[in-house]
Recover the amino acids of this structure.
């Protein structure tokens, strides 16, 4: 668990536009895009979503996009 917490805490990001690079900022939410753990963490995070929705709702997910829809 310590390895996972190390991965999710104290991450920084920079923005590059042309040849300019911003100063590093703290990443307050999410995990690093393009990381190996990103898709796994996303799947774990949303795995229980269908269990807490009403019966007439369903989840549509593709990559990092998730939609909740109601039948009707």
């Amino acid at each position: 668990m310590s390895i996972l917490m190390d991965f999710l805490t104290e991450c920084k990001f920079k923005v590059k536009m042309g040849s300019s690079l911003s100063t590093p900022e703290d990443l307050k939410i999410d995990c690093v895009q393009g990381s190996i753990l990103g898709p796994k963490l996303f799947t774990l995070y949303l795995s229980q979503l269908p269990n807490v929705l009403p019966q007439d709702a369903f989840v549509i997910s593709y990559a990092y996009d998730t939609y909740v829809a109601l039948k009707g």
